[in-house]
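Forum > Structural Biology > Help requests

Title: Can anyone predict the 3D structure of Acetylneuraminic acid synthetase?

Hi all, first post here. I have the sequence for Acetylneuraminic acid synthetase but no way to get a structure on my laptop. I'd be grateful if someone could post the C-alpha cells.
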Amino acid sequence: MFERSYADPYIIAEIGVNHEGSLDRARAMIQSVARAGGHAAKFQTYKAATLASARNSPSYWDTSQEATTSQYELFQRYDTFGADEYRALAGFCAEVGIDFLSTPFDLESVGMLAPLMPAVKIASADLTNVPLLRAVAGTGKPVILSVGASTYDEVDWALELLEQAGAEQIALLHCVLRYPTPQEHANLLGIESLRSRFGDRAVIGYSDHVAPSTDGTLPAIDMAAIMGARIIEKHFTDDRNGVGNDHYHAFDEAQLRSYVTSLETVRRLAGDGNPDIAAQHEAVANARRRIFVTRDLPTETVVAESDLIALRANTGLEVARWDSVIGRRLTANKQKDDPILEGDLAD
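Reply #1:
Sure, ran it for you. C-alpha cells for Acetylneuraminic acid synthetase below:
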C-alpha cells in the first residue's frame, strides 16, 4: 500500500462502527466496499472503559447530527465486537478480495489485530500516546498515523518515537479533527507541507472528514489524489441519512464507485510527468518554426540576419539553429520564401 503511484491512492473505506454492532451489516458493508473498488475496509476496535472517562469526556462532533454529549456514552453504545468478530470480519475481507484494517485504541487490541492486518492505523488523537505508539511499532507492521490537531513538532516527535521503537514503514495522513470538517478548514495544502517536512521519512496521505457536496461529489478527496496523496481514508456508510456520528460525513457505495472511476481519468491525465514527444510528433513536425529567406540570394552569399525569417513549416532547418546560419556562405541559389536546408550552407 505504500508503493502507490501518483493519482493511484490506496483507498481505505472506514466503516468504523457504522455497523452499529451488527456483524451481518458489517459484512454487507465490506461487500459494498469491494464492489465499489476500495482497497481496504477499516473498523475501530475499542472498549469505552479503556478509551474515555465516564465523567469527563465531552463530545467533539456535531451534536445536531449525534446528540450524545459524552464520548464515553457514545463509545459504549458501539463497543460490542470482540476478537471473534474481528477475526470473522478479517476472514470475510479476504474472501471478497480486500484488506481488513481496524484502528486499535488499547494495547490488547494492538496484539489481537496486528496478525490480521497488512498495517496498523493510529488515530490522530493517539499521536501522543506513548505506550500505544511503541506497541504498534513493535508489531513490525507498517504504521499509518493520522496527524489531525497536531503541530509539526509533535509529528516529528511521534515519528522519532515510532522509528526508535522499530517502525520501518510509516505513512502520515493529513487530517482535520472536526466532524464534519467545513471545506474552508480542510487545508489540503497540509498534504504538501507534510511532504516537504517529512517526505524523506514517511509516505504522505489524507484522512478526510469533509461531508460530500450537495450534488454527491467529493471535492476534498478528488483534490487530495491530484496532490499526490498515496493513501486516502474516508468514512463509509450504507446509509448517509443514518443517525450517528460517522454517517453524515461519510461516502456510500455509489460515491466510492464514482470516486474510483474518476481516479482512472485522473491517472490518464496525470501521465508519468515525462515529455511525450512521440504523442506530439505531428505538432513538432508541422507547428515549429523553420528558417526561410526573405529575398533572392545567389550562391556564395554570406547570410545576414536580415536575410532570414522564422516561419511555421514542415521543412527547413529549425529556428533553434538560427545563430549557426548567420554568417555562413550559401552553396545554392535561394529564392525569396525558400527554406534553408541542411546542405545549403558551407562548412
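Residues 253-270 form the longest helix (18 residues). The mean pLDDT is 93.
Shout if anything looks off.
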